[in-house]
Amino acid sequence: MNKAIYRILDANLDRAREGLRIIEEWCRLGLNHKALAEECKQIRQELAQWHSWELRQARDTPGDVGTELSHPQEEARESIEQLLQANLCRSQEALRVLEEYSKLYDPEMASACKQIRYRVYTIESTLFNSYRHQLLHSAPLYLVTSPEPEILKIVEAALKGGLNLVQYRDKDGKDSDRLEMADKLCQLCHHYNALFIVNDRVDIALAVDADGVHLGQNDAPVAFAREILGMQKIVGRSTTNKQELNKAISEKADYVGVGPFFETPTKPGKAALTQEYVDYVKAKCSVPWFAIGGIDLDNLNGILTTGAQRVSVVRAIMQAEQPTQVTRQFLSQLVRR
Ligand SMILES: Cc1ncc(COP(=O)(O)OP(=O)(O)O)c(N)n1
Ligand SMILES: Cc1nc(C(=O)O)sc1CCOP(=O)(O)O
Ligand SMILES: [Mg+2]
């Protein structure tokens, strides 16, 4: 057998396991996801069984011309998501190499590596689903943007204050500008490990690889968004009454907006909801719900006494003189509850 084949198998068995070990740590300690952590560990053990003595013996690290080759992107990672993605990719690529080269060594190993590669794809989709959903469930404050000239600075200031959920809303812009801004905001949010959602536009959410889309009653159906964006992405729905809430839950929206709590110039012409509806939401809503409409630091306490635990705001942050401070104040009142 050509020694180079042994070296390739040896190196890629290590590479696949190392990538998985990094994923396993996050599943265990970052997500507290026992089943995913166990699956990573199980796969690592199965791969170790293929790592025979003859393969290990073929190792020749000083003679490996590739040990010093690295891409600048490997030196720095922008976010946990990017780090996880890079290591999943590393494992998947290594498994593909193992699958191909072990056809020349042991066809049983080739078929085992193929099965394992599919299992790593399943880990990937479960992981990102859990990661996004965990962030969504842990977010008490949701910033919906307005098209201010300094939008990027304001959003970044709020992210610095601890915000981790942002919706890009611009009802009047040109599509080319919207796309450019959505892309910038998406990157900014991901840099701060925050979720980025696009208002109304499933196509823009898809184009910039946003974490999801927010749809109102006159926007596309939830199922349509899922078909376009895939099951891993977040789909939110606005609701103002019981019927809309029941429908949003039966459509399996991931979260709902509940509003307007107060009439607001940001969305003129929409009458405030009733306390009866808020009581219904409290009793029946099985997904995270965000109170929205006219909410600011002055009335936040009153909102929280109606039973809301999460709020969504536009002006309170987008027009604040100190968005970082205001965000911190919102968060400190919200998490105290
Ligand atoms: C969190 C949240 N809740 C409600 C809305 C309103 O959505 P919609 O009714 O589609 O109105 P527009 O925002 O599109 O004008 C929202 N955007 N976010
Ligand atoms: C975008 C939006 N949707 C609402 C709803 O009730 O569905 S209220 C609203 C605007 C909220 O803006 P502000 O925080 O400036 O009052
Ligand atoms: Mg809408």
From TrEMBL:
Required cofactors, per record?
Answer: Mg(2+)
One Pfam family this sequence matches: TMP-TENI
Q: Which residues bind Mg(2+)?
A: D200, D219
Annotated GO CC locations: cytoplasm
Residues annotated as binding 2-[(2R,5Z)-2-carboxy-4-methylthiazol-5(2H)-ylidene]ethyl phosphate are T264, P265, T266, G294
Annotated stretches, region: Thiamine-phosphate synthase: 120-337
| CDD domains reported in the protein's UniProt record | TMP_TenI
Q: Which residues bind 4-amino-2-methyl-5-(diphosphooxymethyl)pyrimidine?
A: Q167, Y168, R169, D170, K171, N199, S238, K267
Please verify whether the record's keywords include Acetylation: no
Q: Which residues form the Thiamine phosphate synthase/TenI domain?
A: 141-317
In the record's cofactor note, how is the cofactor described as bound?
Binds 1 Mg(2+) ion per subunit.
Positions of region (Unknown): 1-119
Q: Which GO terms describe its molecular function?
A: magnesium ion binding; thiamine-phosphate diphosphorylase activity
Source taxon at top rank? Bacteria
One GO process term, biological-process aspect: thiamine biosynthetic process
ThiD2 domain location, by residue? 7-125
Write out the similarity annotation: Belongs to the thiamine-phosphate synthase family.
Question: By what name is this protein known?
Answer: Thiamine-phosphate synthase
Organism field: Waterburya agarophytonicola KI4
Which gene produces this protein?
thiE
